[in-house]
């Protein structure tokens, strides 16, 4: 029993090499709209609006595809630099992922 507890604690102590970041899509906006990540991190976009949205990078580095109400998609950020993104359906919805 004690060994199990120690093992469980060790599992949490292992450094996370890739973090996941959460972005909500709500009110025709990305929250947050500016996301700083490390190369290799993932971002989960969740659509809390009643209409369909996407999060599509202008440089093609990631694309959630169409997210209906309540749906989410996880994308991986593989390249360093600033990656402006937008909703492919509502192009006035914009944000930027900056990866180091
Ligand atoms: Cu949209």
The largest pleated sheet is described as: 4 strands, mixed
State the CATH architecture.
Sandwich
Quick one: CATH class? Mainly Beta
Q: Based on DSSP secondary structure assignment, what is the total number of beta strands? A: 8
General description of the model:
With 100 residues, this protein is mainly beta. The protein has one domain (17-99): Immunoglobulin-like (Sandwich), CATH 2.60.40.420. The chain contains 1 helix and 8 strands; from the N terminus they run αββββββββ. The chain has one helix at residues 2-13, and strands at residues 20-26, 29-31, 34-37, 42-47, 56-57, 72-76, 81-86, 94-99. Strands 2-1-4-6 form a 4-stranded mixed beta sheet, with no helix packed on it. The mean pLDDT is 91.
What characteristics describe this protein?
single chain, 100 residues, mainly beta, Immunoglobulin-like, 4-stranded mixed β-sheet, 1 helix, binds copper (II) ion
Compact overview of the structure:
This protein is mainly beta.
Summarize the topology:
Elements: H1 2-13, E1 20-26, E2 29-31, E3 34-37, E4 42-47, E5 56-57, E6 72-76, E7 81-86, E8 94-99
Parallel strand pairs: 1-4, 3-8
Antiparallel strand pairs: 1-2, 4-6, 5-7, 7-8
The chain binds copper (II) ion.
Copper (II) ion (CU) binds at residues 53, 87, 89-90, 93.
């Amino acid at each position: 029993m004690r060994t199990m507890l120690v093992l469980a604690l060790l599992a949490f102590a292992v450094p996370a090499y890739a973090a996941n970041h959460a972005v909500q899509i709500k009110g025709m906006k990305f929250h947050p709209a500016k996301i700083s990540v490390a190369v290799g991190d993932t971002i989960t976009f969740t659509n809390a609006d009643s209409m369909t949205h996407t999060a599509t990078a202008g440089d093609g580095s990631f694309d959630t595809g169409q997210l209906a109400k309540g749906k989410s998609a996880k994308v991986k950020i593989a390249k360093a630099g600033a990656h402006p993104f937008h909703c492919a359906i509502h192009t006035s919805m914009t944000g930027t992922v900056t990866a180091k």
